[in-house]
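The protein record quoted in full:
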Amino acid sequence: MPTYRFLNTKTKEEYEELMSIAEMESFIKKRHIKLLPPTQMNIVAGVGSTNIKNDGGWNEQLSRIAEAHPESNLADRYGKKTNAQIKTKNLLNKYRKQKK
């Protein structure tokens, strides 16, 4: 249940009460009370785990994109490669490092 801030319009007294929405609505109707905005807000930045697992359809789509762009970073992570392609890439990287 939320906490509401109220202002008594006769006495100008501010106070907080813990009650349901229905109770708050009837509470305001019966008295000379005005509902004030909350002093603090609870904001949720995210819900769930940061370690999200993708389903098979999404992984398949990523592999299709990787096949269309074989030299991209996405291809390094999700692309399907044969052993010959892996060995060739490693050999090229080795010689590129030697030239620097």
In short: The CA atoms of residues 28 and 34 lie 7 Å apart. Strands lie at 3-8, 14-18, 33-36. Residues 56-90 form one domain.
